[in-house]
Automatic annotation (TrEMBL):
The gene is IPI3. SUPFAM superfamilies: WD40 repeat-like (SSF50978). PROSITE patterns: WD_REPEATS_2 (PS50082), WD_REPEATS_REGION (PS50294). Pfam families: WD40. Residues 408-429 have a biased composition (Polar residues). This is Pre-rRNA-processing protein IPI3. Component of the RIX1 complex, composed of IPI1, RIX1/IPI2 and IPI3 in a 1:2:2 stoichiometry. The complex interacts (via RIX1) with MDN1 (via its hexameric AAA ATPase ring) and the pre-60S ribosome particles. It comes from Vanrija albida. Coiled coil: none annotated. Component of the RIX1 complex required for processing of ITS2 sequences from 35S pre-rRNA. It is found in: Nucleus. Keywords: Nucleus, Repeat, rRNA processing, WD repeat. Belongs to the WD repeat IPI3/WDR18 family.
Length: 461
């Protein structure tokens, strides 16, 4: 079966009072569309989200994934399983959150608040692992690096902080985890977007930040977190979103004026075919002009996303439209009009195996266990007493045992036919084969019982 790439999108209801036709608005929801055809695949109702407030947990190891979305203006997060379009669970949060993120490994969830507070939860247990004041103004976004080792927070106070997740989980030093691992602090106005490269990890990589001061900055994520380059947009442009390709060859910056700017990260060298990286001279150096508007839409740009193959650019707008453009020509291919409010989330993903109406598996995937998120940080003793759910699926093992149990019976049926024609030699050989299969079955049954008892003992311990 061919791999299907989907578009995951969500919107806000803040400016979606009427539809384009003048009628009533559609129910706000999280939508999935086919990237190749723009056809509608699934809708998760009902959800209205602010910017940077939606995250997903991928399906893996036979356990279904889920969509998490903080509801706009409420201290509530909704959880939807891929298997059904209705809300699976409603979680009550410590306060109203302005941003929300889940680590790529699916272990941690982070949320930021208008007061500058940041929360970090363990998803499996719902335990609040850390809570600290990271900024003195609203937290605008929280971003994990691809290896889930670093957490990057941005704020309206014009600062960007980098935290080590392992330090945040260290209960032995509760007073030190609030200190950032590094600070990216050369912007003068509120941060509007943060993007990290695919190679970013605990050992380094690159990060891009955009702010209302009209600049996009490129940083090193290795201490001392040097500023590598500053790109300045035209004077009237304010970057509202960023998208970086996986090879880190270029950056797209969407603006509140409806323009999308292409920022190349490599430039031609003197020799034919030669290229070199675009870099500035650090702090205080003049900015590199990035005034190449590769495309323009009729409404302010709120979100950008690239397809997995970097062959298409997705542009989300304040009017609720999603424009799909071909790369590198930037020619518009299609427009999706499923939302009536501003687009607040836009990303691409490979179709989950457990998505509703999916025919990729014959056996259903269980829905991942979701627990209520703690609203206060637990003590060390309470934390040690918390339990984590384990999904036990004996059907896979039993199906293999059933095949072994049927094997001796099938061998007996086969042995009756050659016995009549080939005499006692064939009968003796088949009898020996039956004994060997029965011995193998006994060993498999004992091994399965031993493993099952071990799992049960571990669970009850």
């Amino acid at each position: 079966m061919a791999t299907q790439e989907l578009i995951l999108s969500a919107s806000s209801a803040a400016e979606g009072s009427t539809s384009r036709s003048g009628g009533s608005t559609s129910t706000p929801a999280i939508h999935l569309h086919d990237l190749a055809t723009s056809s509608h695949v699934q809708a998760f109702k009902t959800s209205s989200n602010g910017p940077n407030s939606l995250a997903t947990v991928r399906s893996h190891d036979g356990v279904g994934g889920s969509v998490w979305a903080v509801q706009e203006g409420k201290a509530i997060a909704g959880v939807w399983a891929w298997q059904k379009d209705q809300q699976h669970m409603k979680l009550h949060l410590p306060e109203r959150l302005t941003c929300f993120s889940i680590s790529p490994n699916g272990l941690w969830a982070a949320g930021g608040s208008p007061s500058g507070q940041v929360y970090l939860w363990e998803i499996a247990s719902g335990a609040l692992q850390a809570s600290w004041t990271a900024h003195y103004r609203t937290v605008n976004s929280l971003t994990f690096t691809p290896d889930s080792a670093l957490l990057i927070s941005s704020s309206s106070d014009a600062s960007v902080h980098v935290f080590v997740v392992a330090h945040l989980l260290d209960s032995d030093t509760p007073g030190t985890y609030s200190q950032p691992y590094g600070t990216l602090g050369d912007h003068t106005l509120a941060i509007t977007a943060v993007a990290v490269g695919k190679t970013a990890n605990a050992n380094g990589g690159r990060c891009w930040t955009a702010a209302e001061d009209g600049t996009v900055k490129m940083w090193s994520l290795a201490p001392p977190f040097d500023l590598l380059a500053t790109f300045s947009l035209p004077s009237a442009a304010k970057a509202s979103s960023l998208a970086v390709d996986s090879a880190e060859r270029f950056v797209y910056a969407g603006s509140s004026e409806g323009n999308v700017y292409l920022i190349p990260l490599f430039k031609r060298k003197g020799a034919v075919g030669g290229v070199e990286a675009v870099e500035g001279d650090g702090l205080g150096a003049p900015a590199i002009k990035a005034d190449l508007a590769c495309l323009t839409v009729e409404s302010p740009v709120t979100c950008l996303a690239l397809s997995h193959g970097e062959s298409q650019l997705l542009v989300g707008t304040r009017s609720g439209d999603i424009h799909i453009h071909s790369l590198p020509s930037h020619q518009q291919l299609r427009t999706i009009t499923a939302h009536s409010g501003p687009i607040t989330h836009l990303s691409t993903m490979i179709r989950p195996a457990d998505l509703s109406n999916s025919a990729t598996r014959s056996d259903p995937w269980p829905i991942m266990e979701v627990r209520n998120l703690d609203r206060a940080r637990a003590s060390t003793s309470t934390k040690h007493a918390q339990t984590v759910g384990v999904s036990l699926r004996p059907t896979v093992g039993s199906s293999r045992l059933d095949k072994l149990r049927r094997a001796p019976q099938q061998s007996q049926l086969v042995s009756r036919q050659p016995a009549a024609s080939n005499g006692e030699d064939n009968s003796a050989a088949l009898s020996q084969e039956v004994r060997e299969l029965r011995a193998a079955l006994d060993r498999a049954v004992k091994l399965n019982e031993k493993m099952w008892n071990g799992v049960v003992d571990l669970k009850l311990a």
